[in-house]
Amino acid sequence: MSSLPSRPQDAANAADRPAVSFADLNEMARSGEPIVMVTAYDHPSASVAQDAGVDIILVGDSAAMVVLGHDSTLPITMDEMVMLSSAVRRGAHTPLIVGDMPFGSYEASDALAVKNAQRFIKEAGCDAVKLEGGGTSAQRARAIAAAGVPVMGHIGLTPQTAAALGGYKAQGRTAGAAASVLEDAMRLQDAGCFSIVIECVPSAVTEVIVEQLSIPTIGIGAGPSTAGQVLVYHDLLGLREGRTAKFVKPYATLRDSAIRAVTTYASEVRSGEYPGPEHGYSIEPAELNSLRQSLGQTKAPGRVQ
Ligand code: KIV
């Protein structure tokens, strides 16, 4: 963990930057320097995020949908999350890495929550964990924090309980509903969370919540007033097919580029253009002759069809 003050912002030297600390996040929120968070689920995406100079990588349970092809975040397991998180840790050293506690890994008891939170730290090398919801989740957050594991909260649209919230839609759109999102936020802060993600909440409601909190907030579809923003890696790179949420801004169209590249590869394999001589390895002619002689051959046979 780094000491303050500040980290160089030169992306070219991102891997040489000091690791982002919890104190850095507080200082950034205090000074108004935006915190950049992105999801990553494997070694290459983690190393891209690090080299781009992001502050926090979230190994989100969105991996269930984004990389494992499920219809919701619910099916992903602790073992899968630990495997993905450890790959991310191997790919990035400077961003703070948060492992997302999957559905079923913390709800039943404080003991279960602490045990699984510790797996993210011990087995995957994460710096912190995240869980969804206020209410009972605030109690679980308190237990996890008391066990020495830094916890991030997540309020508003909480995908693990989306069905109970009426689907994937904005939350806190009436005074009463907004007050309940604020109450969740206050409970999580009181439980010892170091930060809270606010998802799909009207920007003006987020502003009220941010005013009331003293810990840094990270928004997704929650307007500009949070201390930081988070997007899903595959959304921001345009790597997913189909419709994306209103808050997603694609900064590239990598799925189209990938399809073009693989199509060209397929066509070159089929036409014989690939591989060319420059893609092969050589052997000394004498060695080749010796091999052929050992097989009783005197000259190269034609290509086997
Ligand atoms: O799982 C995830 O990717 C998340 C972010 C959308 C905040 O929880």
Automatic annotation (TrEMBL):
Pfam families: Pantoate_transf (PF02548)
Gene Ontology CC terms, in alphabetical order: mitochondrion
Keywords: Transferase
Gene Ontology biological-process entries: pantothenate biosynthetic process
GO molecular function: 3-methyl-2-oxobutanoate hydroxymethyltransferase activity; magnesium ion binding
Functional pathway: Cofactor biosynthesis; (R)-pantothenate biosynthesis; (R)-pantoate from 3-methyl-2-oxobutanoate: step 1/2
Protein EC: 2.1.2.11
Family listed: Belongs to the PanB family.
Name by which UniProt lists this protein: 3-methyl-2-oxobutanoate hydroxymethyltransferase
